[in-house]
Amino acid sequence: MKFFRAVKGGEVSTFLLDGTQVYFLKGDVVRALLDGPSRGEEAAIDVNSLLARGEWGGWKITKPLDPPEVWGAGISYEAARGRYTEDVKDKGMTIYDMVYNAERPEIFFKATANRCVGHMEPIRVRSDSSWTLPEPELGVVLSSSGRPLAFTVVDDVSARDIESENPLYLPQSKIYAGSCAVGPFLVTPDEVGDPYSLEVNLRILRGGKEVFSGRTNTSRMRRRIDEQVKYLTRDNPVPDGTLLSTGTGIVPGRDVDLREGDVVEITIDKLGTQVTPVVKGKG
Ligand code: DO4
Ligand code: MG
């Protein structure tokens, strides 16, 4: 099953997509993931048009949940270790090499609901960043006990120049308005199957032309989801609906950066395609 949300007349409604049938969902999406969904009436929504245009029949698609907390995992893929290491001048053992090999993963606080955007909503480049990159990641919605309730597409948008200046600036590079894109769907684990065999594709478009493309597969994730969840929830109570973004396996180099007007397109098998325009500054 897939869930999505859309807004009409200022009201947010949650929908359940079962095959091609769309139903209103009664109650909150996290409750539905925890206890099973309570279907309302069938909804006459053309989901393909809503996804393609962001709007359809007065409905505007929005993020599929308001995550109370979003956490990130880092250096989960060898590709991330390699790219992040390029930032560090000292060519000895870097903090990224160390965390890649260590038992304890890098887990960091990423966002709250008000810093998240949905499919077709703008992600941001901070006003004080001149090198910001998208990080396409498999997102996992968790129960308070750490049980995976659903999967989604997450963009862990990161001001790479700020972190590379000094790793202690990580929170400023990661946490700001529009730094986290979620959706379009929450997809239940039974529909996803094996989360370690999903193709991940990233494209950056400028003036309609592709300026970057990259791909990976979640099979390359060194940090398994249960390992990440174990450390996230150790001595750290998280609320139902917490979103964990499991790290990126696609990290473009210094020659790529996000600019105002760019469009980021992330596709993950079984989870759909997330399209977000880029804006710079507070807006
Ligand atoms: O400090 C590095 C952050 C790494 C990250 O966000 C990732 O690997 O996805
Ligand atoms: Mg990341």
From TrEMBL:
Keyword annotations from UniProtKB, A to Z: Hydrolase, Metal-binding
GO biological process: small molecule metabolic process
The UniProt record lists the keyword Hydrolase: yes
InterPro entries, per the entry: FAH, Fumarylacetoacetase-like_C, Fumarylacetoacetase_C_sf
Transmembrane segments: none
GO MF: hydrolase activity; metal ion binding
Entry-linked PANTHER family: 2-DEHYDRO-3-DEOXY-D-ARABINONATE DEHYDRATASE, FUMARYLACETOACETATE HYDROLASE DOMAIN-CONTAINING PROTEIN 2A-RELATED
Name of protein: Fumarylacetoacetate (FAA) hydrolase
Native organism taxonomy: Archaea, Thermoproteota, Thermoprotei, Sulfolobales, Sulfolobaceae
